Amino acid sequence: MIFAIDYFAHIKNELDEFKLKLLLNIEDLNNPIFDEVFNSLKPHQQEQYLAYKTSEEAKKYRNERNETLPYVDFNNLPKVLDDALLQKVMLYQKEGEVRRAIFDALSEDHNTQLSQLKRKARDEMESQRRASLTEEERKKEDEDTIGFYDSKKFNGNLFEPATVYEYILKYGVDPRNGNPETGESFQKKYTYNSSGEIIPRENKE
Question: In this structure, are residues 37 and 2 in contact, taking their beta carbons and an 8 Å threshold?
Answer without folding.
Answer: yes
